[in-house]
Amino acid sequence: VDIAESFLGSVVNLKKPLQIENVQTSxxxxxxxxxxxxxxxxxLSIPLEFGGNAIGTLNVYKEETYVFSNDEIHIATAxxxxxxxxxxxxxxxxxxxxxEELLRQNEKLSALGLLAGEVAHExxxxxxxxxxxxxSLGLEFPEDDPRAEDVRIMGEKMDHLNxxxxxxxxxxxxxxxxxxxxxxxxxxxxxxxxxxxxxAQQNVELEIQLEDNLPTVKADGPQLSxxxxxxxxxxxxxxxxxxxxxxxxRTIQLSKGVAAPTHVRIEFRDTGCGMDMESRERAFTSxxxxxxxxxxxxxxxxxxxxVESHGGRIKIKPSDSGTTFSILLPLTDR
Length: 334
Hints:
Layout: H1 7-14, E1 18-20, H2 32-38, E2 42-50, E3 53-62, H3 70-100, H4 116-136, H5 146-166, E4 180-182, H6 184-201, E5 204-210, E6 217-219, H7 221-237, E7 243-252, E8 263-270, H8 277-282, H9 300-309, E9 313-317, E10 324-330
Parallel strand pairs: 5-7
Antiparallel strand pairs: 1-2, 2-3, 4-6, 7-8, 8-10, 9-10
Helix pairs in contact: 3-4, 4-5, 6-7, 7-9
């Protein structure tokens, strides 16, 4: 049976909850043999929606003929919404891990390395909301009620997801940059999308100043994306009470006697607590340098090495208020 023509396909297409009192006798349910073998009778199916798209269904079964109440449907719908969010964040984590595999250069990072802070927030936030809602619903049933076991398993699985986040371990990869013509402005636009929620949570205003028609540079796009994200997260760490972050791209000319631009400059300017001279001098010297007390580093040393592997330079400019990281990438082949 085509999924679009099935009962679950109808739930996905209609994007609304549907239920069947008895799946063993209903013609709308195509897997009646399996339902009889498993003792499944009543069924409630809720669409898993994210970003206006249905990505699956959350199905609740009972072992007897039953009509689910509006309250039960509302509870299941709330859990389905949070489940869809958690699934999408898990997919984001998978994409991030794939990107990180290109980023390692025979270095061992304690904790999570690049993106650890963002992954933790992106995964933990929906999990925290899910657990809070789960506990606030007061889902307590008699021991002989099959729902009691379901509730216990739900709680264990949420704890399991949280443990997985905690157990993302050290990565060690060999990955030379794969240099291709790369649109720096597009990488910055993609970064804006990735961090917009965290920016709003910390009351940090993001200002993007991109030079029109910026020339492409030969670079490894995923690696530069990690550099930009690391610098953004580092800026957010310095602004726990809010502030502003400006990201600027522009061409500059550094060679005498050459009229055309020779480099692209990308700057990250924050209004945070700033860095003293000693911190600026050792920022790119240790793999374990971090602004986090628990060592889950943002890896400025990795940032420096990636920029150097692209034939570029990075420096920290002193400022009366905040910190400015300035990256120079050559427009010509190395």
